[in-house]
Design a protein that fits this description.
By secondary structure, the chain is of the alpha/beta class. It is about 45% helix and about 15% strand. The chain has 16 helices and 13 strands. Helix 3 packs across helix 4 (about 105-115), helix 8 (about 200-215) crosses helix 14 (about 325-335) and helix 11 packs across helix 15.
Length: about 375
């Protein structure tokens, strides 16, 4: 089996593609996988680091603020469509799978036009523009959240799979993760992060949280600021007499997320589709703070997929902006009420996909 995976820009589009690719290789040892992305997206580094070949096309997304710039976007689309055709013809895939991002447009369209079976995987509860446009050209749409189906037009194509999550999130155990990170078995562990770039509103609220917990025995705080905010956050903490060390661990980026999620008791984070799925698979309580700066407010839809079922707390950023102490209040409630916290974690795990990548793999064989 030869498969082209295409998707990019952010980890939310790339990691599901990698999880699908890993499953295909696991199930079919003779499988050949090729990724197609752009040099501007995170895929240029993430994909090779996972051992997969990647080729690039030159395409860019629509500019919703300056329509005149879309003249260049249209020109690049036509050129990238030709680039995609050349890659597809040389690789001769049995299937093409798009996982979102504007790079999928020319690749999936080019493949469909020459008769290659195409599929798309939608991570969010509110689908992206590119995937909605591609739906009519594909065999199936693999849905990360069932609610996303109502925003598409061809329900007969839909397969609810959940989001593909890397196998490490299923296999990493709490005890071994805590041992690896040097965390006591009985410590309360808070994990907070706002994505690879960071989230300023979460970071500001976390200053108060860290002020409260700094130096407290039995509590460990792991805080990923994002690369854009690390230095200002460290300076703000220094101004209130808190340094990274002891029970406070401030990092620019949280690598090996599966280990930290397995070790923590509570996660505070944005509600990107993949993050929500990883929290659910890990079976962890969470306070989800959706980004208001995303198309269609899709992070709120993602958060509600858990919060409406009692599997997470949804804290709107608008409320946090009005009163930053709300985050500490939610954390304290969950810290003090172990039964409530563990009930939330159990509900999250019950909503997690167990076999998303398997479902997708076997769908390719039909």
């Amino acid at each position: 089996m030869k498969v082209i995976m295409t998707g990019g820009g952010t980890g939310g589009h790339i990691y599901p593609a990698i999880a699908i690719a890993d499953k295909i290789v696991e199930r079919s040892y003779s499988a050949e996988i090729l990724f197609v992305g752009t040099k501007r997206g995170m895929e240029k580094d993430l994909v090779p680091s996972r051992g997969y070949e990647i080729r690039f096309i030159d395409v860019q997304g629509l500019d919703r603020h300056n329509m005149f710039r879309n003249i260049k976007t249209a020109y690049k689309y036509l050129r990238s469509r030709k680039q995609a055709e050349e890659i597809i013809e040389s690789f001769d895939p049995d299937a093409v799978i798009g996982t979102g991002g504007y790079v999928c447009g020319p690749v999936v369209s080019a493949a469909a036009s020459i008769g290659v079976k195409c599929y798309i995987q939608e991570q969010n509860a509110f689908p992206g523009l590119t995937n909605k446009m591609l739906e009519r050209k594909v065999e199936n749409v693999f849905l990360g959240f069932e609610d996303a189906g109502k925003y598409f037009k061809y329900p007969e194509k839909h397969i609810v799979t959940g989001n593909p999550v890397r196998s490490d999130f299923f296999t990493t155990e709490r005890k071994e993760a805590r041992e690896a990170l040097g965390i006591g078995e009985d410590d309360f562990v808070l994990l907070a992060f706002g994505g690879s770039l960071g989230a300023s509103r979460i970071n500001r609220a976390m200053i108060d949280v860290i002020r409260q917990y700094s130096g407290q025995s039995g509590i460990q705080v792991f805080f990923g600021t994002g690369k854009n905010y690390y230095d200002p956050v460290v300076a703000d903490l220094h101004s209130i007499g808190v340094e990274s060390g002891g029970n406070i661990h401030v990092k620019q980026y949280i690598d090996h997320m599966e280990q930290y999620l397995a070790a923590c008791d509570l996660a505070v984070t944005r509600s990107g589709a993949l993050t929500v799925s990883e929290i659910a698979v890990s079976g962890r309580a969470s306070v989800l703070i959706p980004s208001p700066n995303v198309t269609g407010d899709h992070q709120t839809y993602n958060a509600r997929a858990l919060s409406d079922k009692g599997a997470a707390i949804l804290l709107p950023e608008k409320k946090l902006a009005e009163d930053s102490s709300l985050l500490l209040q939610e954390i304290e409630t969950l810290r003090k009420d172990k039964a409530y916290r563990e009930g939330m974690a159990s509900k999250a795990r019950s909503l997690a996909p167990n076999d998303a990548a398997d479902i997708i793999y076997y769908s390719l064989l039909t």
